[in-house]
Write a structure and sequence with these properties.
single chain, 77 residues, mainly alpha, 4 helices, 84% helix, rod-shaped, GvpG, Gas vesicle protein GvpG
Length: 77
């Protein structure tokens, strides 16, 4: 049965291969996006930008909330 299934699904192989590659890319991107070390570096850069006067308090609070939410999501996984 396994060989017959593979033969019948052979025409769809390029689509299945592309879908697999896309899943792998999304997985790596999500792992990097939620990586605590990356988020901490971004938080440090955000604090530096705020202290240098490059962003206002409202922008700082908004972006800080986004970064902390990423850490929380990672913690819940």
């Amino acid at each position: 049965m396994g060989l017959l299934t593979e033969v019948l699904l052979l025409p769809a192989a390029p689509i299945r291969g592309t879908a697999w590659v896309l899943r792998q890319v999304v997985e790596v991107a999500e792992r990097e996006y939620y990586d605590p070390a990356v988020v901490q570096r971004e938080l440090a850069a955000l604090v530096a930008a705020f202290e240098a006067g490059e962003i206002d308090e409202e922008e700082f609070d908004r972006r800080e909330d986004e970064l902390l939410a990423r850490l929380e999501v990672r913690g819940n996984q």
